[in-house]
Amino acid sequence: MSLIDLQGVSRIYDLGHVQVAALQGVDLAVEQGEFLAIVGPSGSGKSTMMNILGCLDRPTAGTYRLAGTPIAELDDDGLARLRSRTIGFVFQSYNLLPRTSALENVATPLLYQGVPRKERHARALAALERLGLGDRVDHIPTELSGGQQQRVAIARALVTEPALLLADEPTGNLDSTSGADVMAVLKELNAAGRTVVMITHDADVAAVAGRQVHVRDGRLVA
Amino acid sequence: MELVRLALSRLGSSRLRAFLTMLGVVIGVASVVSLVAVGQGATSGITKQLQGLGTNLLTVNPGATTTGFTRGAAGSASTLTVADAQTIQALPGVSAVEPETSTSQLVVAGSLNTTTSIIGTTGAYTIVRNFDVWQGATLNGAAVDAHLNEAVVGATTADDLGLTASSIGSTIKIGGLPFRVVGILQAKGSTGPTSQDDQILVPYTVVEDQFVPGQTVRSIGISVATAGQIDTVKAEITTLLESRHAIAPGGTDDFTIADQAQLLTTVGGVSTLLTVLLAGIASISLLVGGIGIMNIMLVSVRERTREIGIRKAIGARGRDILAQFLVEALVLSLLGGMIGIVLGIAVSALIGQLAGWGFVFDPITPVVAVLFSLLVGIVFGVWPARQAARLDPIVALRYE
Description:
The complex is a heterodimer of chains A (about 220) and B (about 400).
Chain A: E1 4-14, E2 19-30, E3 35-39, H1 46-53, E4 61-66, E5 69-70, H2 76-86, E6 87-90, H3 102-111, H4 117-130, H5 146-158, E7 164-168, H6 176-191, E8 195-200, H7 203-206, E9 211-216, E10 219-221
Parallel strand pairs in A: 3-8, 3-9, 6-7, 7-8
Antiparallel strand pairs in A: 1-2, 1-4, 4-5, 9-10
Helix pairs in contact in A: 3-4, 3-5, 4-5, 5-6
Chain B: H1 2-13, H2 15-52, E1 57-62, E2 66-67, E3 70-71, H3 82-89, E4 94-109, E5 112-121, H4 125-128, E6 133-136, H5 141-145, E7 150-153, H6 155-160, E8 171-174, E9 177-185, E10 199-203, H7 204-210, E11 219-224, H8 230-244, E12 255-259, H9 260-303, H10 305-313, H11 318-355, H12 364-390, H13 393-398
Parallel strand pairs in B: 5-10, 7-9
Antiparallel strand pairs in B: 1-11, 1-12, 2-3, 4-5, 4-8, 4-11, 6-9, 7-10, 8-9
Helix pairs in contact in B: 1-11, 2-9, 2-11, 2-12, 9-11, 9-12, 11-12
């Protein structure tokens, strides 16, 4: 069974007088342990793709099964639970909680899983150490460099041991050195067995992935 | 628990704003607590003073004169007599009776002088009017019967005249006549503009001889044995005086009987009303404080839209966000409420001190105030929190 299974997925935005199809009839399967890059220029529908894959949005047509669960059957709370257990997000702009220490940032997803405080902190610390940030746990985001912030974000994505790591332009805000560094981390995580799906417009970044699919005007092209 | 910790650290990171937000609730709760305490203090102060006038006290005053068709002011008749007082004494349920006549005279003691009211009465005055004798003794029956020039001096008057404990037995001059000081009364505190402590008691027989001729009295004070007998005794006195004054059944009485209990009930009712009114006004400021919290929470939801998006993306459900913002509003209002209680108690203690009725503290007030501020937090926190909980994570994440 595939981890991600999209069949005929469309997402149409109803703007009242006009309907815009951001995705049209997308079929996609991602297997456990894959490193997939979804590549496309801006406006191609890859952000919509990211929202659907991340269970932040629902398709208007077609079916999406994540780890066997058809998400059309879930309500908002069900989607939140599924995100919490199955997906780790890495965003282009890091999206760390402001004025919050690296440790608390990484521990927050566990808060929403109801993990006790002590265990949360122990697991968050382990995740940060794994990303080489053991000496930065008490720093707040503004005290960290971009590359470090993105590492904290990756630690936060990993702390729940999700089946899927979903990265949206993870190197978009980084200089080339930090970017290469983050890509190395993702590659390493994938080598350790984690499924990684990355959305990018950058062909060089995409080349790191094991497989690439291209999005054009809301459709997948080979 | 986690949410309280989260809320506290959040509020700690913007202390000035948190404080200003709380200020509305602080002022609201403080004014409710202090105004209620002040109201209750005033009530108990007034009640205490009224009770100090005498327990189970009935006062008979002369009624109005009627000349032709014109009815004069109450008290304008001079129909009550010492004999009336003596017959009332014989009624069942009456424990003490004292007639009062009065005059105002210049009083001289050594080099000091004052003008004060001279009450012509009997030894029963101190019982009926609930005075304690500080030094010496009250008037005795023998002195009244023998028309002796003896005086019992009120506390304030004694002060004015420089009389002390050692002055018992000394001579003062009242209206030019020498009087022996036999006692000094304990101070009672003032009631209204005229002080009960600024007066001198002398035998009514002496007042009649020297200052105000005639057997009529200003009023008769009666102490009833038990509170339960007040109404019966009142009725008996009415019947007795009507027959003594030859008033036909259905005719207009030439006297009135004032009842202490009635007065207490009336005053108590008025001051309770006042307390409720004060609390009502103070609650308005609490309401305004609550709206302040709502305002800040709404701004906060706006400002933290992105944070809400992040939290939702990493697994927070709508209800987690709702709880987070609600707890924040509750912590704000509860903290404000507690500061307000402390402030309110301090203010009411101060006012009680200044006004002289002491500090009355009702533990119900802070409990009610805390519950009320919690209610304010919930009522004014729910709406912003729901706004936060309903945010679409995609929109919230994209929000700059």
